[in-house]
Amino acid sequence: MKSVIALCFCGLAIALHAQTVKTFTSPDGLFRFKYSNILVDCMPTLMGAEVPTSILSACTSQPRMCDGGEGTGNTIACFGYPKERFKDKPTFIAATFFVAEIDDAKTEKTCLERSQDWKVAGSTTINGVSFVAFNGGERNWLGGSQSGPILRAFHDGKCFELGLQTAMEHGGYDPEVLKRFTKQDDDEVKGRLKQALDSFRFTK
Length: 204
Hints:
Distance between the termini: 28 Å
Largest sheet: 9 strands, antiparallel
Helix content: 10-25%
Order of helices and strands: EEEHHEEHEEEEEEHE
Number of strands: 12
CATH topology: Jelly Rolls
Strand content: 35-45%
CATH architecture: Sandwich
């Protein structure tokens, strides 16, 4: 029997007040989700468009921030938390929520197979649809790392991948000069992105 994963982050009982919530609908109308207006649309960075530094910094890290790292997905939507909100806390690099279609997964079996570097975390249901949840595997580099949950579902003959990615720097810094990225900060970032994940629904 499949285990059930809640995909919750401890301490995410944060007040997401005083925000405007927008709705993203896929070009084919197959899915939609709601997201906070403070999030940054990262899609222009994937298309090679010239964007302001504020957008580029919110959407990029050493590994890709808008897919699960497999290189087989076609990203349809990607939103990042604005880095400028933590400009005095440089250990925070970037954090994103993304939705991608896995082009080479044409069957449910291939869609839900784990990657070599992933571990199955169980299953979860989002608005009536069952997803297989994976621990996407931590991607490390000198002085930093990136990780986050990956979810997959086979729907309407297509393989969909949803993910949350967070990149952090682990290098030393002077606490007298630079403020520490706190648990409250972490809860704020993950709460905004998980809001989009939790509101995801297929419309067809």
